Amino acid sequence: MKPSDSQKPVNQNGAEPAAGLSSVPVWLIVIFGALFYWCQLYLDGHAGGFSKEVYAPYDSPEAVLAANPQSEGDSTLAMGRDVFAKTCSVCHQPNGLGKEGQAPPLVGSEWVLASSADRIVHIPLYGLTGPITVKGEQWNLTMLPLGENLNDQQIAAALTFIRTKLGDNKASPVKPELVKAARAEAHRGYESADELLRIPLQ
After folding, report:
1. For the chain, where do the domains classified as CATH 1.10.760.10 start and end?
2. Among the four 42, 82, 96, 199, which has the fewest Cβ within 10 Å?
3. Which CATH class, in words, describes the domain spanning 71-197?
4. Which residue has the higher pLDDT, 172 or 18?
Protein backbone atom coordinates (compact mmCIF):
# COMPACT_ATOMS: atom_id res chain seq x y z
CA MET A 1 0.00 0.00 0.00
CA LYS A 2 1.58 3.28 -1.15
CA PRO A 3 1.33 6.30 1.19
CA SER A 4 -0.33 9.34 -0.23
CA ASP A 5 1.69 12.45 -0.99
CA SER A 6 0.06 14.18 1.97
CA GLN A 7 1.54 11.62 4.35
CA LYS A 8 5.19 12.05 3.17
CA PRO A 9 7.36 14.08 5.61
CA VAL A 10 8.61 17.30 4.09
CA ASN A 11 10.67 20.14 5.50
CA GLN A 12 9.73 23.77 5.34
CA ASN A 13 11.19 24.43 1.90
CA GLY A 14 9.32 21.51 0.47
CA ALA A 15 12.30 19.14 0.00
CA GLU A 16 12.25 15.65 1.41
CA PRO A 17 14.62 15.13 4.42
CA ALA A 18 17.86 13.30 3.66
CA ALA A 19 20.10 11.33 6.01
CA GLY A 20 23.57 12.76 6.74
CA LEU A 21 25.56 15.11 8.93
CA SER A 22 24.63 18.74 9.14
CA SER A 23 27.53 21.15 8.70
CA VAL A 24 28.79 23.20 11.66
CA PRO A 25 29.93 26.75 10.96
CA VAL A 26 33.70 27.13 11.01
CA TRP A 27 33.50 30.22 13.22
CA LEU A 28 31.73 28.19 15.91
CA ILE A 29 34.49 25.55 15.84
CA VAL A 30 37.14 28.26 16.15
CA ILE A 31 35.37 29.85 19.12
CA PHE A 32 35.05 26.53 20.96
CA GLY A 33 38.69 25.70 20.21
CA ALA A 34 39.87 29.05 21.53
CA LEU A 35 37.70 28.67 24.64
CA PHE A 36 39.07 25.18 25.30
CA TYR A 37 42.64 26.43 24.89
CA TRP A 38 42.00 29.31 27.30
CA CYS A 39 40.52 26.89 29.86
CA GLN A 40 43.65 24.74 29.67
CA LEU A 41 45.88 27.75 30.25
CA TYR A 42 43.73 28.91 33.15
CA LEU A 43 43.80 25.52 34.85
CA ASP A 44 47.53 25.20 34.30
CA GLY A 45 48.13 28.52 36.03
CA HIS A 46 45.48 28.37 38.75
CA ALA A 47 44.74 24.74 39.62
CA GLY A 48 47.93 24.15 41.58
CA GLY A 49 48.56 20.91 39.74
CA PHE A 50 45.30 19.63 41.27
CA SER A 51 47.20 19.09 44.51
CA LYS A 52 45.18 18.74 47.70
CA GLU A 53 47.85 20.85 49.40
CA VAL A 54 46.95 23.93 47.34
CA TYR A 55 44.00 26.10 48.33
CA ALA A 56 42.63 29.55 47.49
CA PRO A 57 43.90 32.19 47.12
CA TYR A 58 47.19 30.39 46.33
CA ASP A 59 48.09 28.92 42.94
CA SER A 60 50.97 26.57 43.75
CA PRO A 61 52.53 24.50 46.56
CA GLU A 62 55.37 27.04 46.68
CA ALA A 63 52.93 29.91 47.29
CA VAL A 64 51.20 27.99 50.09
CA LEU A 65 54.56 27.18 51.66
CA ALA A 66 55.71 30.79 51.51
CA ALA A 67 52.48 32.03 53.12
CA ASN A 68 52.73 29.73 56.13
CA PRO A 69 55.07 30.15 59.10
CA GLN A 70 58.33 28.31 58.53
CA SER A 71 61.24 27.31 60.67
CA GLU A 72 64.70 28.47 59.69
CA GLY A 73 65.44 25.04 58.23
CA ASP A 74 62.24 25.03 56.17
CA SER A 75 62.88 28.49 54.74
CA THR A 76 66.47 27.53 53.88
CA LEU A 77 65.30 24.43 52.03
CA ALA A 78 62.61 26.42 50.22
CA MET A 79 65.23 28.94 49.09
CA GLY A 80 67.63 26.16 48.11
CA ARG A 81 64.97 24.33 46.12
CA ASP A 82 64.15 27.57 44.29
CA VAL A 83 67.81 28.37 43.49
CA PHE A 84 68.39 24.80 42.34
CA ALA A 85 65.32 24.84 40.08
CA LYS A 86 66.21 28.18 38.49
CA THR A 87 69.99 27.77 38.23
CA CYS A 88 71.43 24.30 38.80
CA SER A 89 68.77 22.08 37.24
CA VAL A 90 69.29 23.63 33.81
CA CYS A 91 72.51 21.61 33.41
CA HIS A 92 72.38 18.99 36.18
CA GLN A 93 68.71 18.20 35.38
CA PRO A 94 65.76 18.55 37.81
CA ASN A 95 66.41 15.06 39.20
CA GLY A 96 70.10 15.84 39.79
CA LEU A 97 71.28 12.90 37.68
CA GLY A 98 73.22 15.07 35.24
CA LYS A 99 73.41 14.76 31.47
CA GLU A 100 76.09 13.28 29.26
CA GLY A 101 78.25 15.98 27.73
CA GLN A 102 76.58 18.69 29.79
CA ALA A 103 76.99 18.19 33.54
CA PRO A 104 77.87 15.37 35.96
CA PRO A 105 75.37 13.92 38.43
CA LEU A 106 74.85 15.51 41.83
CA VAL A 107 72.88 12.60 43.29
CA GLY A 108 75.31 10.11 44.78
CA SER A 109 78.33 12.25 43.88
CA GLU A 110 81.30 11.80 46.24
CA TRP A 111 81.99 15.53 45.92
CA VAL A 112 78.47 16.41 47.07
CA LEU A 113 78.32 13.80 49.84
CA ALA A 114 81.76 14.48 51.35
CA SER A 115 81.93 14.69 55.13
CA SER A 116 81.86 18.48 54.87
CA ALA A 117 81.14 21.05 52.16
CA ASP A 118 84.56 22.76 52.38
CA ARG A 119 85.44 21.75 48.84
CA ILE A 120 82.10 21.90 47.09
CA VAL A 121 81.33 25.49 48.18
CA HIS A 122 84.18 26.64 45.92
CA ILE A 123 82.53 25.25 42.78
CA PRO A 124 79.50 27.57 42.54
CA LEU A 125 81.59 30.48 43.82
CA TYR A 126 84.49 30.27 41.38
CA GLY A 127 83.37 27.79 38.74
CA LEU A 128 85.11 24.57 37.77
CA THR A 129 87.10 23.58 34.72
CA GLY A 130 89.17 20.63 33.60
CA PRO A 131 88.89 16.90 34.24
CA ILE A 132 87.06 15.67 37.32
CA THR A 133 85.98 12.15 38.26
CA VAL A 134 82.42 11.74 39.54
CA LYS A 135 81.07 8.30 40.48
CA GLY A 136 83.90 6.60 38.57
CA GLU A 137 83.34 8.54 35.35
CA GLN A 138 85.62 11.31 34.13
CA TRP A 139 84.14 14.61 32.99
CA ASN A 140 86.04 17.39 31.27
CA LEU A 141 83.72 20.39 31.18
CA THR A 142 83.55 23.95 32.45
CA MET A 143 81.00 25.23 34.95
CA LEU A 144 80.64 29.00 35.05
CA PRO A 145 81.02 30.79 38.42
CA LEU A 146 77.84 31.93 40.16
CA GLY A 147 79.41 33.88 43.01
CA GLU A 148 78.60 37.26 41.48
CA ASN A 149 74.94 36.38 40.93
CA LEU A 150 74.18 34.52 44.17
CA ASN A 151 74.86 35.64 47.73
CA ASP A 152 76.30 33.49 50.51
CA GLN A 153 72.87 32.53 51.84
CA GLN A 154 71.57 31.49 48.42
CA ILE A 155 74.62 29.34 47.68
CA ALA A 156 74.48 27.73 51.11
CA ALA A 157 70.75 27.06 50.73
CA ALA A 158 71.19 25.50 47.26
CA LEU A 159 74.02 23.27 48.48
CA THR A 160 71.99 22.33 51.56
CA PHE A 161 69.09 21.27 49.34
CA ILE A 162 71.44 19.32 47.06
CA ARG A 163 73.22 17.59 49.95
CA THR A 164 70.14 16.78 52.03
CA LYS A 165 67.06 16.50 49.80
CA LEU A 166 68.05 15.93 46.18
CA GLY A 167 67.36 12.32 45.20
CA ASP A 168 68.52 10.05 48.02
CA ASN A 169 71.35 12.35 49.13
CA LYS A 170 71.75 12.49 52.90
CA ALA A 171 74.57 14.73 54.06
CA SER A 172 74.97 17.65 56.44
CA PRO A 173 73.58 21.11 55.63
CA VAL A 174 75.80 24.01 54.58
CA LYS A 175 76.11 27.21 56.61
CA PRO A 176 76.37 30.63 54.93
CA GLU A 177 79.46 31.28 57.05
CA LEU A 178 81.31 28.53 55.17
CA VAL A 179 80.48 30.18 51.85
CA LYS A 180 81.53 33.58 53.24
CA ALA A 181 84.90 32.20 54.33
CA ALA A 182 85.50 30.63 50.92
CA ARG A 183 84.54 33.87 49.20
CA ALA A 184 87.06 35.80 51.30
CA GLU A 185 89.95 33.68 50.06
CA ALA A 186 92.34 35.21 47.53
CA HIS A 187 91.37 33.31 44.42
CA ARG A 188 91.75 33.89 40.71
CA GLY A 189 89.95 32.07 37.98
CA TYR A 190 88.24 28.71 37.93
CA GLU A 191 88.81 25.87 40.37
CA SER A 192 90.20 22.54 39.22
CA ALA A 193 89.73 19.10 40.74
CA ASP A 194 93.37 19.04 41.86
CA GLU A 195 92.98 22.38 43.65
CA LEU A 196 89.80 21.21 45.35
CA LEU A 197 91.48 18.05 46.61
CA ARG A 198 94.09 20.16 48.39
CA ILE A 199 91.36 21.70 50.57
CA PRO A 200 91.07 19.73 53.82
CA LEU A 201 87.66 18.47 54.90
CA GLN A 202 86.62 19.48 58.39
Report:
1. 71-197
2. 42
3. mainly alpha
4. 172
